[in-house]
Design brief:
heterodimer; A: about 60 residues; mainly alpha; 434 Repressor (Amino-terminal Domain); 5 helices; B: mainly alpha; globular; disordered N terminus
Chain lengths: ~60, ~240
């Protein structure tokens, strides 16, 4: 699954640590999400959507 | 540092120097222990000595590998114990199995420390009894109680860790456990079949436990390496 986390984060000039703190997850989680190594759980995906004030589909893209 | 700068290369000079230093220390340790064994067992190594004592080959292999695993668990307990009090060690992601120095990881280190202490205690007892099955019976109850308390401590610390570490680490843990269990199940079925029809001698539970731990360590390394692109970086990675 592709996502726009890296772009959204860069637009706000946030570091991975800033985003990790805002979402209450580890820095490694953000790193793995951005590099496409890990897909978030639904609760985390909703949390990310709320943080960026965007619908989930605007952040995550189904590659199938 | 801008948010979009590339991460540091895995094979940085600092990483190479660290690996080189570890290799030198490992070589020195191997030389000293090898020299000690050569003096102590002039007519053969530890394998020959154990074989002379009547241990079957599979038990000898299990005991040697079990000793290595026990050494790893004791070292892990020391490293995580130091990570509780030393921020430099806590942020070293190679030493801390990829956890690093972020707040949730630092909160987890005391429980990982307890887990490895308890694990080393239980596994040490099992190794002791596998190596010396004829220990005095007066040892039985104290050993059992230590094993029982340590096992409960392991379960308690693992439950705490489940809730402290975030979903990414839980996923790695679950995937590694599932993969290792499935591989072990296949091996157990094959070995049990071979033993049942008399193609090979019976295998002890201790040998099975040693094999499972080796398989788990390998699968954890593979799963964590695939999930965490910066697992082999010594420090916290720069923003990807």
């Amino acid at each position: 699954m592709k996502n726009r986390l890296k772009v959204l984060r860069a637009e706000r000039d946030w570091s991975q640590s800033d985003l990790a703190d805002a979402l209450d997850v580890s820095r490694q989680t953000i790193n793995a999400l951005e590099t496409g190594k890990y897909d978030p759980s639904l609760p985390l995906a909703f949390k990310i959507a709320r943080l960026f004030a965007l619908p989930i589909e605007a952040i995550f893209e189904d590659t199938l | 540092m801008s948010a979009l700068e590339k991460p540091k290369a895995i094979f940085s000079p600092k990483w190479l120097v660290s690996v080189g230093a570890l290799a030198v220390c490992g070589g020195a340790f191997g030389y000293v222990t090898g020299d000690w064994f050569a003096e102590r067992f002039p007519h053969g190594g530890g394998f020959s000595y154990l074989a002379e004592q009547g241990y079957p080959p599979l038990t000898i292999i299990s005991l040697v590998l079990g000793g290595v695993l026990l050494f790893i668990y004791v070292c892990s307990a020391i490293v995580y114990g130091l990570a509780i009090v030393n921020k430099g060690i806590a942020s070293n992601r190679v030493l801390t199995g990829g956890l690093g120095g972020n707040p949730s990881s630092r909160k987890a280190y005391p429980y990982i420390f307890v887990f490895y202490i308890a694990y080393a205690a239980v596994f040490g007892i099992l190794t002791l009894y596998a190596a010396s099955p004829n220990l005095p019976t007066s040892f039985a109850w104290p050993m059992f109680l230590i094993g029982l308390v340590s096992s409960i401590a392991m379960a308690w610390s693992a439950t705490k860790l489940w809730f402290i570490l975030d979903e990414f680490f839980r996923t790695i843990w679950v995937e590694a456990c599932a993969l290792a269990s499935f591989i072990m199940l296949v091996i157990v079925l094959i070995v049990a079949s071979a033993v049942s029809v008399g193609l090979m001698p019976a295998v002890t539970l201790y040998s099975g436990l040693v094999l499972y731990q080796l398989i788990y360590l390998i699968t954890y390394g593979i799963v964590a390496g695939a999930r965490d692109p910066n697992m082999l970086e010594m420090g916290e990675p720069e923003d990807a």
